[in-house]
Design a protein that fits this description.
4 helices; 27% helix
Amino acid sequence: MTQSRVTKEWTVGDVITGTPRLVTQQTINRYGELNGDNDIVHYDAEFARAAGFRAPIAHGMMVLGYLSETLREAWGAAWLAAGAVELRWTGPVFPDDTITSGGRIAEHAADGDGVRLTAEVWCDDQDGRRVLAGAATVSLPAT
């Protein structure tokens, strides 16, 4: 079910927790087919090892997609319409990693009739290694 509006009153310190997602080589392959990214580091284990990775790496934008889905679940259609994110990738994601995205509300400010939220956001792997970190902002209408 798609959430179209936010029903939660957010406060500073509130935590956003996403659903853990298993990344498989098949997922990486399908994502590459969809976006046209044919860089061999995503598909060839030998090439990836020669490039310094232990296995092929997931596309960074695929990992960002997991975070974006978590923010859509938290903030509804407002995230899709006008959310913004600034981030950096801090580590690779490999096949068989489980990625969990999340965040913590850092700022809560009046914004017209609604509220503007800023959250620290991230994606971590199954070992707690941060693979993506940054900040997301969204303006939510009054509830």
